[in-house]
Design goal:
With 428 residues, the protein is of the alpha/beta class. The chain folds into 2 domains: 213 residues, FAD/NAD(P)-binding domain, CATH 3.50.50.60; 205 residues, 3-Layer(bba) Sandwich (FAD/NAD(P)-binding domain). Strands 1, 2, 5, 6, 7, 8 and 21 form a 7-stranded mixed sheet that branches. Strands 10-19-11-12-15 form a 5-stranded parallel sheet. The chain is globular. The chain is built from 10 helices and 21 strands. It comes from Ancylobacter dichloromethanicus. One of its GO terms (molecular function) is flavin adenine dinucleotide binding. Keywords: Oxidoreductase. Pfam families: Pyr_redox_3.
């Protein structure tokens, strides 16, 4: 196909989730013609990759997409799945983006004369700028050992889990204790299922402390606005696992030790299946202690904030373990345990193979500074810790989108030589 005859846009946004539509909102405000391309339908992941009892883990007041702040009756509550979908549907209606749904981007390649050729399942386009808004959670991670498990055992990834009723009767093994794993384990536990949980190194935090939601305290303390460059771990913080907590039933802690007292069986990290036994690390006690250390450490930081600012609040407290493993079990006979299903909650890996640009590190993750890459005209939005802890939340993705669009608008008003210098400076 003659590249000069394909439809051209100053900006093509790949991905129609909240990040892509936030970008569309700001592009429209700048008067920049653009196209949003979405593989499925806008916001589809919130509907198709969340379980029935899913709810936000951050208070509703933090939902502040561009031009669309939360306006419901419960700002300190936690929206459930149907409320989230309604909120996002209303956001899409406000943005009214120029979007093509059900279209897959197959390849993005630089053009010799500048800009990019975007090959899709619906034909080719060209663009001066490409904004990657497809997130970083593309391929569900399931270990190779899953192939060796008996075929009678049902296996689903967290993205496929909906409710306890979809799984066959019998005990369920949940692998992973990050936000999804801990909440799915709780969902099954509350449904009366026997649960085995393989616990990883995820930290945890309190839901409420000293009279307020912990998120509210941390927001006041500036934690969600701290740029990645100022974090002690720098870019390494992007590899951190989120703290497990829940907004279910008005919000509460997730205490795995309490679950153990109630009959949930906790194990260390699942390492192998030897044909008969599931093999676990003997790290359970350490993992629980480390999670509690983070929990108490966050609360201690809140204590200091309260003291330094003379804030009136209920007295401080320290979490004390309500259960400890008497003896860790490194091996579990799969047949004898009766486990009928496994829910894999060990995350996703990114897949940006369709983007032909030198903007990735050795692990396949984008290299950028607040979404601006060293490749002129290539941007990312919607990644965890794109700029700050808040970048992956409804409250801050709009600010990141505004930053990127301002950069694009500046490029659009500059000559080629100036644009080259601006792109190099931004990626430094």
């Amino acid at each position: 196909m003659n590249e000069n005859r394909v439809p051209h846009y100053p900006v093509i946004v790949v991905g129609g989730g909240q990040a892509g539509l936030s970008t569309s909102y700001h592009l429209a405000r700048h008067g920049l013609d653009h196209l949003v391309i979405e593989k499925h339908r806008a916001m589809h992941a919130w509907d198709t990759q969340r379980w029935d009892n899913f709810c936000l883990v951050t208070p509703n007041w933090q939902c502040d997409l561009p031009g669309h702040p939360y306006a419901g009756p419960d700002p300190d509550g936690f929206m459930r799945k149907d409320e989230i979908l309604a909120y996002l549907t209303a956001f899409r209606a406000k943005v009214d983006p120029p979007i093509r749904e059900g279209v897959s981007v197959r390849r993005v390649t630089p053009r010799a004369g500048g800009g990019f050729l975007v090959a899709t399942s619906s034909g080719e386009f060209s663009a001066d700028n490409v904004v990657v808004a497809s997130g970083g959670y593309h391929e569900p991670i399931v270990p190779r050992m899953a192939e060796r498990l008996p075929p009678a055992i049902a296996q689903v990834h967290s993205a496929q889990y909906r409710n306890a009723g979809q799984l066959p009767e019998g005990p369920v093994l949940v692998v992973g204790s990050g936000q999804s794993g801990a909440q799915i384990a709780e969902d099954l536990h509350l449904a009366g299922r026997k649960v085995h949980l393989a616990v990883g190194n995820a930290p945890r935090c309190a839901r409420f402390y000293r009279g307020r939601d912990v998120v509210t305290w941390l927001a006041d303390m500036g934690y969600y606005d701290m740029p990645v460059e100022q974090h002690p771990l720098r870019e390494g913080v992007r590899d951190n696992t989120n703290h497990y907590v829940t907004g279910r039933d008005g919000g509460r802690d997730i205490d795995l030790r309490k679950f153990a007292l109630e009959g949930m069986e906790l194990h260390g990290v699942l390492r192998e299946f030897d044909g008969t036994h599931l093999v676990f690390d003997t790290n359970l006690a350490q993992a629980l202690d480390e999670a509690d250390k983070t929990y108490n450490g966050i609360n201690a930081a809140i204590d200091r904030h309260i003291a330094e600012n003379g804030i009136a609040a209920p007295p401080p407290s320290t979490y004390e373990a309500v259960w400890r493993p008497a003896q860790e079990r490194p091996r579990l006979d799969l047949a004898a345990s009766g486990i009928a299903a496994i829910v894999w909650c060990i995350g996703f890996r990114p897949d940006f193979r369709w983007l032909d640009a030198p903007v990735f590190n050795g692990a396949g993750h984008p290299r950028h500074r607040r979404g601006v890459t060293a490749q002129e005209g290539v941007y990312f939005i919607g990644l965890p810790w794109l700029h700050s802890w808040g970048s992956g939340r409804f409250g801050s993705v709009g600010r990141d989108a505004a930053h990127i669009v301002t950069h694009i608008a500046a490029r659009a008003g500059q000559d080629g030589a100036t644009r080259d210098r601006a792109g190099q400076d931004s990626a430094a």
